[in-house]
Amino acid sequence: MMHVGEGPGGDPKSTRHELWARFRSAIDEFYARRKEHFAHVEREREDNLRRKKHLVSRAESLASSNEEMSVLGYDAKMPAHRSSRARRRAHGN
Fold it and tell me: Which residues, including other chains, have CB under 8 Å from residue 12's CB and lie 6 or more apart?
């Protein structure tokens, strides 16, 4: 049985408005946190891309410079050594 001042849902209008306000507040908070999270994820992606580009640039400079290879303790024969090791592995040695 409905009381005076209640709508068809059985709740007074003020209660419905209060529930709607609470719901909107929760949804607004959710979307604000979601937006913050994805902004953080995007910043991490951009930082990772910047780091990857730096590594690629560094690798390219190392590949084209025997001087830097010798500074790191490698000699210019390293690629030949790797290929001979690969051949040995292919033959089961």
Answer: 5, 6
